[in-house]
Amino acid sequence: MDSKKDIRIVDIARMAGVSIGTVDRVIHKRGRVSEESLKKVNAVLSMVNYSPNIFARSLVSKKNYKVVALIPQHSTDDYWMYISEGLERASEEAKSSGIAFERLYFNQYDRASFEKSIERLLTLDVDGVIIANFFSSEVVRISKALDVRNIPYVYIDANIEDQNPLAYFGTHSYDSGAVAARIISGRIGQKEDILIAKMFHNSKELSNQVLSRQKGFLDYIERSAFAGKIYYADLKIDAHIRNFEALDKIFDEQTGHSIRAAITFNSTCHVLANYLKVRDRKLTYLVGYDLIEKNKVLLKEGYIDLLIGQRPELQGYRALKVITDKLLLNLQSEKINYMPIDLLIKENIDYYQNL
Amino acid sequence: MDSKKDIRIVDIARMAGVSIGTVDRVIHKRGRVSEESLKKVNAVLSMVNYSPNIFARSLVSKKNYKVVALIPQHSTDDYWMYISEGLERASEEAKSSGIAFERLYFNQYDRASFEKSIERLLTLDVDGVIIANFFSSEVVRISKALDVRNIPYVYIDANIEDQNPLAYFGTHSYDSGAVAARIISGRIGQKEDILIAKMFHNSKELSNQVLSRQKGFLDYIERSAFAGKIYYADLKIDAHIRNFEALDKIFDEQTGHSIRAAITFNSTCHVLANYLKVRDRKLTYLVGYDLIEKNKVLLKEGYIDLLIGQRPELQGYRALKVITDKLLLNLQSEKINYMPIDLLIKENIDYYQNL
DNA sequence: AAAAATAGTGTGTTCGATAACACACTTAAA
DNA sequence: TTTAAGTGTGTTATCGAACACACTATTTTT
Fold first, then answer.
1. pLDDT tens-digit profile of A35-54?
2. Is there contact between A61 and strand C, defined as CB under 7 Å from any strand atom?
3. Which PANTHER family match (chains A, B) (predicted)?
4. CATH number of the domain where residue B42 is located
5. Which residue range forms the structural domain that includes residue A265?
6. Residue B327 needs a FRET pair 20 to 30 A away by CA distance; which of A61, A180, B100, B186 works?
7. Are residues A254 and A198 in the same domain?
């Protein structure tokens, strides 16, 4: 265990009776080694537990790796901004080891823009790729291309079976929906009602992430003793007036309802919370996702009761970390990595750490 | 921002018009530098942003630091074991940089044993210390001794004002009590009762940690609309039969009670949960602290409803990390560091990550 | 006045891995 | 037979920081 006894290349060379140049060629598979030398060196290598001194290596190595992340365009205070922050932090740490990190943005609602990013990526000379998995068939395509070139890649957000990413980082959306359901059903009566607010972006379909959370939620509710009704509000991003009308309609006109809890399965809980704040309506329990600033403020003010966090920064950080560990140290990692499902309320949000 | 443009000692030497040896002497304050050279080098140093290449440094440096942690003896599956794991992990990472890490154990219920550990510590030639802050006046004493010797130290678990630790890592016990209160009071009726189980260790007093959690809990309850009663159960560690009797007494003999929720403010929630399991009594909500195995099992089985976690591993990890960052890179860090207050239920415990 | 100590400075070596380079051979083509 | 290309091997400069050491110039001690 003594770190001073670490075996060096020169030790191996001596043991094998060859020069350090030969050992180096064997280790790095650079060829130009005779059968005989190869055998001798490999024999020694299989005996001893050699791992290169990373300090010496990084010192000399002028090797520059380029890692590219394919992520959706995002605004500030957005789930993807937090992922991006995690990437940034990992990138800072790896910079001194010769890792250049770059982002390629695409429009998450436009498949064509994703394809364009892929094309661009393939023209770049990259050594590692992080892919936000929005368009599965395209991701499969690029994965195969990367497999051929032997370039490691990592998926974030969603996984795809039967591919060979170095790792996958994401959240277990289904179970996080179940978590929300468990908590809400503990807070309201069995015959009270629940409102699910769906936020649409330019009338496109909901993301898999959101659908999966909702499924986990509904499945749990179904199995439970819940006997109330579930109402749905279809909201549109940035359609302030229209959204208020839609919500008014549900709360005013739906006769006989007793909505006591509400949930949104994406980060737009603040829209609903803001509606309740403005209209001065009280619910027993309002649940949302993602610790974006707008949500945090409303949580602290008491208009949101629970936020479910998924550590986007950690996701980004670890995604890049896995690639740099692979490139620099040839380390393996866990294949499937789910982020924690964090529960944040007014009283513990100040202690939250996203990394 | 370009990592290749990092300034080296030779650059500084050239800029100052002296040799690298002189720059080195200035940087390391090793003396033997003329007024004139000193001024020239310092002028350059204040212009540029020099930070040594850690790879080159670690490669050449045979400097060995010794860091010692003063922590209480603990069994497996104990809060302090998890802190210890965090320390271990940080120690592994730092080993290759010449950091030797060692633990000194004391009996957390015996002041004299702590004093003895301090004495031992002072005989060792250490470069950094981590102190589990159990006995304040003794900790103040050793802190002053370390200040004199200019040895950095970090507090964990509890802080002391007016001292100069490099950093403090701990949990905000009071607020975590409030978190528990908020959640429990949301789950039971205003006139239902709460049981607080206190677990004593060899009839000694409760720890500050536990008292502070309880205070946070009670203060919140007081301010809330809660109108039920609070019962207390005084339990003794390992006194199985006696504990059952005490609990039987509360649940059976206290007439007219309606205890629906219970809480323990230390990691022994499993004792209470096990009692409820064996006696087949149902509560609406049982809350405990610390993600030790016994608690986790009972949470998954549904006998515990909520566990509050404080990331002991992270605490240990970061405590040592702060010291190694100081010793190796002379980095500063945040002074006061509270760990997150994690809320774990059956549905999200599988995704918990303690680091 | 000579010898010894000290201040101030620069040079050279070390750490371990890497890869360019030099050199000795072999084989194939001209 | 000469030339060119290719193979296998060992030697060596390099990365940047650290520090031992050698050297000169000055001061202090005998």
1. 999 999 999 999 999 999 98
2. yes
3. LACI-FAMILY TRANSCRIPTION REGULATOR, LACI-RELATED TRANSCRIPTIONAL REPRESSOR
4. 1.10.260.40
5. 173-309
6. A61
7. yes
Residue A145 has pLDDT above 80, yes or no: yes
Residues of B with CB under 8 A from a CB of A: 3, 6, 53-56, 58-59, 95-96, 98, 172, 175-176, 178-179, 182-183, 186-187, 285, 338-343, 345-348, 350-353
Nearest CA in chain A to B178: A347
In this structure, which amino acid lies at residue A56? A
Could A348 and B179 be called an inter-chain contact, meaning their C-beta atoms sit closer than 8 Å? yes
The pair of three-digit structure tokens given for residue B95, joined into one six-digit string: 């080993």
Task: Express as a percent the part of chain A with pLDDT over 70.
Answer: 97
Are B143 and B160 found together in one domain? Answer: yes
Looking at the fold, whether A70 and A19 belong to one and the same domain comes out as no
Residue at A354 is within a domain = no
A245-258 residue pLDDT tens: 999 999 887 666 78
Contacts of A225 in chain B (CB under 8 A): none
**Which tokens belong to B23?**
């720059």
Residue indicated by tokens 């149902």: B282
Judge if the beta carbon of A19 is closer than 7 A to nucleic acid strand C.
no
Residue A349 within any structural domain of the chain: no
Say if A346 falls within a structural domain. Answer: no
* Overall number of domains in chain A: 3
* CA pair distance B209, A344, nearest whole angstrom: 22
Q: Which of B203, B185, B191 is nearest to B287 (CA)?
A: B185
Contact A69, A104 (CB under 8 A): yes
CB contacts, 8 Å: A172 with chain B:
351
What CA–CA distance (Å, rounded) separates B345 from B349?
6
In terms of domains, do A189 and A292 share one?
Answer: yes
pLDDT in tens, A97-111: 888 999 999 998 899
- Do both B300 and B320 map to the same domain? no
| CATH number of the domain residue B330 falls in | 3.40.50.2300
B 16-75, residues with C-beta < 7 Å of strand C: 18-22, 25, 31-37, 56, 59-60
Is nucleic acid strand D under 7 Å from A225's C-beta?
A: no
DSSP assignment of A214-281, as one string? HHHHHHHHHHTT--S-EEEEEEETT-HHHHHHHHHIIIIISTT--EEEEEESSTTHHHHHHHHHHHT-
Regarding whether B159 and B122 lie in a shared domain, the answer is: yes
Residues B177 and B303 in one domain: yes
Q: Which amino acid is it at B148?
A: V
Q: From the CA of A53, how many Å to the nearest CA of chain B?
A: 8
Q: Tell me the pLDDT tens digit for each residue of A290-341.
A: 999 999 999 999 999 999 999 999 999 999 999 999 988 878 899 999 999 9
Q: Is the CB of A222 under 7 A from strand D?
A: no
